[in-house]
Amino acid sequence: MKKTTKKLFSLFLAALMLLSCFPLAAAAQGGEVITTTQTAGWEDLPAMEPGREFTFTESFRASLVPEKSGLYELYMLNASGGAYDGAKYVAGEDETGSLTKDDVELCFEKSLLELESGKTYNVSCYAIEEDYDAVVKISFVCGHGNKQSKAEVMPSCGLGYTAGVYCPDCKRWLSGHEAVFKSHTDKNGDRVCDVCKKESADASGYTGNGKNASYKLYSDGELVISGTGAVGSFHVYADAGETLSIDDKVKKITVKEGIKTLSYAAFYAFENLESVSLPESLEVIEKEVFNSSDLSELYIPSNVKTIEEPDTINSAYFEKFEVSPKNKVFSAQDGVLFSKDKKVLYAYPGGKTEKSYTVPDGVERIADYAFFCCYDLETLKFPQSLSFVGSYAFSDAVLENAETDGFVKYVDCVAVGVDDSDEEKLPDVLNVREGTRIIAAEAFWGADFDGIMLPEGLVSISSCAFEFAAMSNLVIPESVRYIEDGAFNYCGMGSLVVPKSVEYFGDCCFRYMEAIAFLNPSCEIGNLGVGFEFAEDFSSPVKLLVGYGGSTAEKAAKENGSMFAALDEGHEHIYFCTEYVRATCTEDGRTVYSCPCGKSEPRAETVQKGHSWYEESVDSDGTIHYECGVCGETEEEKCGCVCHKDGIYKIFYKLIRVFWKLFRVNKICDCSIEHY
């Protein structure tokens, strides 16, 4: 009975193996497209007929016996493999690319193989993307064999051509018909093939608003764009149906005179772009135009007036920016992009490998994202002239190497964030060090402190610097000139005095702010109380604005729907927190409330002094070391446990320890040392 069962099982397996060969066997007998998932062995492979397309899902194997000798093209879509003469691979001229099929981009390979009639070859390949069908096809091309030729360089014009395979009998190029530009084009400005007498562009098309610009891609990888107006974002296709993308073949872009604008992401598709030549007619470069890590330099012509978000060109990792001396808006120094007057630093090249950089004297502003893609840059030095740093201006490397005083991180004179590596040490009142000129964007975002002490000499507070900060008090120094948009979005303060030195106070939305006093009558004030993207119940308008009659504060109150209180002669005094002195461990601090006019008698509240101790370490003998998280003072004390005493106590402890070990009692004393 057992033997019968084994025989039946063996027959069942044999039947399955036989059935698995049927799909490919059918391919040899008829039908243009054959589908198979077979994985047959090398012996007894089904025959593959030239000119027919085979579709498979995993792998394909078949034998091929050519009827005539010559060149054959092996085409594989979403597949890799080749033809074999026994165990020897049959090499040929290869071409690769990508093809869009059913909205999916699949790679293809083409190989020209020289095969002999009557000889048996094995064709083997496998699918690359398993979720999509793969295709293999072999076709007869030419019976004259692998006759290769190279057209001679014409000394009269210096234009030469090469090709993968040129058959002198057929008088045509069988593959790789490539024009190689030596020095210049013909008299008409086109590259004309000496063999077929046709223009040698591999692809051509149109781009821009209203298709006002045209392009031609040549076989050496140069994309030439001509026309007028704007160049829009586009792709280069090798076929009229726009399914065969050859963006990866673009190595160089030449934009001819007449083009005035490079629109958003104009050249973003060309990731292998190595160089670009821009015309003097160009006026506008919109954001994110480039997207190639192979680009190393960019020359900005004389008439360029606008570069939208100059930082976005750093996504190309340029090593150097150059600007025409005739340009009236931009300039370059040491490869860095500046404004013409050198007061604004727009973009530091992302491909520069220097570890440090000193911003030149005279620079007043660092633009948004100016150093964002500079992954090698670690340290920065700023001049005294600097008064503004834009959002996300620093790279990760710069931030990782920022200085710290134990509480705040700094990039030279810019405070960039809280050092929360040891949260237990953070004080209730954060003290920003002297010499800090700028509070960077989001530096104290979400900070949870009673207050933050800002130093005299501070010049600007960047956007969202104190957004969502829970602090209850903040005194802005008299030296501050600029407070950027959103600096105090949804912060926890109830009131704020904006000193006379502040020239600009940007758009801001609040949650708890009751009153803001503006002491500069002509301070430019943005929109206050707007909830931006948050729900209306998350923000509320400022109830009271205080300032002088006829000032911008009174105008802002009307626009904001807030009450207004004038600081003119005979006004009723309104009390704000105008002085906040941090308490030290040995001296009391104080909070002073007074009217912004300074004429009323101030009220003071004393802030209690005292150390804030935390346990730093414990010695094996039970000595506990403490450190003050405010001033850093240290002290120590001996653990009072019996385990650390001498004399009779020590003997008593040893007896008890025997029982602990016997019953495996884990005893931890007050100093956190385990005893058994």
Write up this protein.
With 676 residues, the chain is mostly beta strands. It has an eight-stranded mixed beta sheet with strand order 33-34-35-37-39-41-43-45. Strands 1-2-10-4-8-7 form a six-stranded mixed beta sheet. A five-stranded mixed beta sheet has the order 15-16-17-19-21, with no helix packed on it. Strand 34 (408-411) and strand 35 (414-418) form a beta hairpin. It is flat. The two termini are 69 Å apart.
Mind sketching the topology for me?
Elements: H1 2-20, H2 22-27, E1 33-36, E2 53-56, E3 59-64, E4 70-77, E5 79-85, E6 88-89, E7 93-101, E8 104-115, E9 121-127, E10 134-142, E11 160-162, E12 165-167, E13 172-175, E14 178-180, E15 201-207, E16 213-218, E17 222-227, E18 229-231, E19 252-255, E20 259-262, E21 275-277, E22 284-285, E23 297-300, E24 306-307, E25 320-323, E26 330-333, E27 336-339, E28 344-347, E29 356-358, E30 365-366, E31 379-381, E32 388-389, H3 396-400, E33 403-404, E34 408-411, E35 414-418, E36 429-431, E37 438-439, E38 451-453, E39 460-461, E40 473-474, E41 482-483, E42 495-498, E43 504-505, E44 515-518, E45 524-525, E46 544-547, H4 552-560, E47 563-566, E48 576-581, E49 589-594, E50 603-607, E51 613-618, E52 623-628, E53 634-638, H5 648-662, E54 667-668, E55 674-675
Parallel strand pairs: 1-2, 17-19, 18-20, 19-21, 20-22, 22-24, 23-25, 28-30, 29-31, 30-32, 35-37, 36-38, 37-39, 38-40, 39-41, 41-43, 42-44, 43-45, 44-46, 46-47
Antiparallel strand pairs: 2-10, 3-9, 4-8, 4-10, 5-6, 5-9, 7-8, 11-14, 12-13, 15-16, 16-17, 26-27, 27-28, 33-34, 34-35, 48-49, 49-50, 51-52, 52-53, 54-55
